[in-house]
Known about the structure:
The protein is α+β, with helices and mostly antiparallel strands. The protein contains eight helices and 13 strands. It is globular.
Amino acid sequence: MAHSALLNVMIAAARKAGRALRRDFGEVEKLQVSLKGPANFVTAADRRAEETLYAELSKARPGYSFLGEEGGAREGADKTHTWIVDPLDGTTNFLHGIPQFCISIGLEREGTIVAGVIYNPANEELFMAERGKGAFLNDQRMRVAARKRLADAVIACGLPHLGRPHIERGHRETAAVQEKVAGLRRFGAAALDLAWVAAGRLDGYWERDIKPWDMAAGVLMVREAGGFVSDVDGADEMMAKGDIVAGNEAMHKELLRVLKNA
Length: 262
């Protein structure tokens, strides 16, 4: 299918950074057996990927601002547009040789996400969306799943871990959802969780304490696939609050209810 000029820019940047990440991922397995381990190598790979994305996106759209996980905010001359980028979402998976990681690129225009690309270079899955134009996986249109009952649903979540706050709250929420669903999953890459909701593989997803670059592209993707996204209070403040709930209309509503009662 033909993509817009904007999506072509984002896809080209993601694929270029992805080629290097795929090569680096091939090296991780060899480093697992070393005493030092691959942590420093992965940190360097993460930073290289962000610099590649910054260079490619800036070349194609000079002046746009840039917000990245590694380098933070870089203000451009054009204050109305900001790239919101995670060069390696799922770093811990990558570090352990688990092929569940991605590059996430969202474009914010005057406070609204208007385009998003999520790319897993390990399996060549490319998710993309543009506001008002639908969401696609490798050029096949995506729709959220149609299940209506939590009892039939597979739900993804984020689990607080070492160094993250609110572990007790996480336990309460996980337990509350776990007893109502067919399956609970923790895949470890927020952007891919949202992409998988958009693709209908997951019926819903929630997570707390995540950053704008984890969700910018995915929020648009779910909505363009017919789904609903909000913060845990049901408002449209995900980026500011750092929490998110996603699913089709029924699943979104039920998850909000369960989490509120937890």
